[in-house]
Design brief:
Elements: H1 27-39, H2 59-62, H3 69-73, E1 74-75, E2 88-96, E3 101-108, E4 118-122, H4 131-138, E5 142-144, E6 151-153, E7 163-167, E8 177-178, H5 189-206, E9 215-220, H6 223-241, E10 248-254, H7 260-273, H8 279-288, H9 296-309, H10 344-352, H11 355-361, H12 377-381, H13 391-399, E11 403-409, H14 417-425, E12 436-440, E13 443-451, E14 455-460, H15 467-470, H16 472-483
Parallel strand pairs: 4-7, 4-9, 9-10, 10-11, 11-14
Antiparallel strand pairs: 1-2, 2-3, 3-7, 3-8, 5-6, 12-13, 13-14
Helix pairs in contact: 4-10, 5-6, 6-13, 7-8, 7-14, 8-9
Bound molecules: 2-acetamido-2-deoxy-beta-D-glucopyranose (7 copies).
One 2-acetamido-2-deoxy-beta-D-glucopyranose is lined by residues 181-182, 185, 381-382.
């Protein structure tokens, strides 16, 4: 099969109407625009394979003293927060002294913190906030109410299964900042991985009780790049130091950008198989958009038809209602507990821009010049490097005994399940335990297949791009099984 030619107007469709919101972009729309920039004929984004850049970093120069900082980072209580029994911390870690780059983290300990592993969560974009999405509307302990002032508990928060660390990365995202504004125009995958590993080394110094703890990295969407790249950087530094600096055990990525060619054609396969475009349009895309048989006019025509068919629907959860009223109210909306409120982004935007909230989080201590947004635009306009595939890094993790799970919410049209299936196929792995359903609460939670070498692929039935938002119980079950290295229960053959 030939390579997909990305010259046509492929991803313009994703800037559909709900981006118009003044309250910051959705991470999925950012990803769409990023793809477009990356796939332009003369794109300046480097697509070469990824190698850790900090080849000979001197650890004693990048690891700074952290005494007393943990205590200062302790969060007594967030405004409007219901009482809880676990501890929370938030604060900055300097990752580059000369440039003045500092990354913001929010840490939700488990109630029985000592017996549970440490789990890092990263959102994608590139440029989207792990506090906005991960912490506040996906797997964190609280969700923001419609008043933009108070919080309610998420009873499926992942900090029942692990001590969960949310990191805003790279600098320029959310509350993470740099004092050298040029940094915002020169960041990319490599800088992100390097800064994140320096963050972790310093954070472990600040929280030494987690130094030898089993460590896992999780993330979604464009974090399909960040997570394996950070794993790569950790393996590299452990090797250089000839000791375990960070006790990496596994990585898990959801609806993840893995391999550009398969990710792209998988989109159209999903649209056709979910009756969003006609089979004919799909066939035209396959026929006319490949190098072998490329026909610019016909390819663009089919892409245009696709764009038109996808208007007025939420591409990152094709069965979800849209946010119709962005206004906040004093009165709570009545939603069933498993129903995700599509206007959540707006409540979070209001909440995180409040001074009392920022003070409680120990965020924005330097009075950043711009307001907090869920996704930061300047970053991805000038993104420096983004390899076409991260398959070699997934293979590297597997070869080093790092567990790899890939999961997929099966109603996402942004990085859909068909893309993930094709990307895994492209790895040429051998099936170990064949495709079967998995159960949660007596229902099918999704499907799972494992491969020789340590990779597991699991779908989550009825979940969109942000899996824990739409299927919180299934997502919690999946992460618990990942952490305990077991498969969720299924049929007995
Ligand atoms: C700090 O960041 C700058 C770019 O802003 C880079 O040139 C420099 O090498 C970095 N220093 C370290 C120690 O990584
Ligand atoms: C950035 O600049 C502010 C104001 O000068 C300073 O307080 C802060 O420590 C600097 N940040 C870093 C990471 O050096
Ligand atoms: C960053 O790039 C944008 C264009 O994408 C430009 O407008 C801006 O001035 C640049 N900022 C710096 C500090 O170079
Ligand atoms: C790495 O550490 C091991 C055991 O601590 C030691 O035997 C070995 O010589 C070290 N290798 C290098 C290259 O320093
Ligand atoms: C939201 O508030 C604005 C300003 O108060 C008002 O004009 C608008 O009608 C409201 N929107 C809805 C859907 O109620
Ligand atoms: C930081 O604080 C300043 C001043 O209080 C505010 O104007 C700005 O919007 C805030 N920025 C962020 C990113 O929180
Ligand atoms: C998978 O196999 C195909 C066909 O043999 C080959 O072209 C491709 O490079 C292989 N991919 C990987 C990741 O090994």
């Amino acid at each position: 099969m030939g390579k997909f030619t990305f010259i046509f107007l492929l991803f313009t469709l994703f800037s559909s109407h709900f981006v118009a919101s003044s309250l910051g972009k959705k991470q999925s729309d950012v990803l769409g625009q990023f793809y477009k920039a990356k796939q332009k004929k003369f794109s300046s984004i480097s697509k070469s394979y990824f190698k850790a850049a900090l080849e000979n970093v001197e650890l004693d120069k990048v690891i700074l003293p952290q005494d007393g900082l943990k205590e200062k980072d302790w969060i007594n209580k967030l405004p409007g927060q219901p009482p809880v029994k676990f501890q929370q911390y938030g604060g900055y870690v300097t990752v580059n002294e000369s440039a003045g780059r500092a990354l913001y983290y929010y840490f939700t300990e488990a109630e029985n913190s000592k017996s549970l592993p440490l789990l890092l969560w990263l959102n994608g974009g590139p440029g989207c906030s792990s506090i906005a999405y991960g912490a506040m509307e996906e797997l964190g302990p609280f969700r923001v109410n419609i008043d933009g002032k108070t919080l309610h508990r998420n009873h499926y928060a992942w900090n029942v299964a692990a001590n969960v660390l949310f990191l805003e990365s790279p600098a320029g995202v959310g509350f993470s900042y740099t004092n050298m504004s040029r940094d915002l125009n020169t960041t990319g995958d490599r800088r992100t991985a390097n800064d994140n590993v320096v963050f972790l080394l310093n954070w472990l110094e600040r929280f030494p009780e987690y130094m030898n703890r089993d460590f896992y990295i999780s993330g979604e969407s464009y974090a399909g790049h960040y997570v394996p790249q950070l794993a790569h950087a950790i393996l590299h530094h452990n090797k250089l130091a000839n000791r375990t600096l960070i006790n990496l055990k596994g990585i898990i990525i959801g609806n993840a950008v893995i391999n550009d060619d398969t990710d792209t054609i998988g989109n159209y396969e999903f649209f056709a198989s979910h009756a969003l475009i006609s089979d004919q349009t799909y066939l035209d895309i396959k026929k006319y958009c490949y190098e072998d048989n490329y026909n610019e006019n016909k390819c663009n025509e089919a892409a245009e038809i696709t764009n038109n068919n996808l208007k007025n629907l939420d591409i990152y959860n094709i069965y979800s209602p849209l946010c119709k009223d962005e206004n906040l109210t004093k009165y709570p909306k009545i939603l069933s507990p498993w129903q995700f409120d599509p206007c959540s982004d707006n409540y979070i935007f209001t909440y995180l821009n409040r001074r009392d909230v920022q003070d409680a989080l120990h965020a924005n201590v330097t009075n950043i010049k711009y307001e907090w947004t869920s996704c930061s635009n300047p970053l991805f306009y000038n993104w420096q490097d983004s390899p076409k595939t991260i398959i070699p890094l997934l293979k590297e993790s597997l070869a080093n005994g790092v567990r790899v799970w890939v999961f997929s919410g099966d109603t996402d049209g942004r990085v859909p399940v068909t893309s993930s299936k094709r990307s895994i196929q492209a790895m040429n792995l051998t099936v170990d335990q064949p495709w079967r359903y998995w159960l949660n609460g007596g229902e099918v939670g999704g499907y799972v297949e494992t491969y020789k070498g340590g990779l597991t692929f699991a779908t989550v039935r009825g979940a969109g791009h942000e899996v824990p938002s739409y299927q919180p119980a299934r997502a919690l079950s999946l992460i618990s099984h990942f952490l305990s290295d077991t498969l969720p229960p299924g049929p007995h053959y």
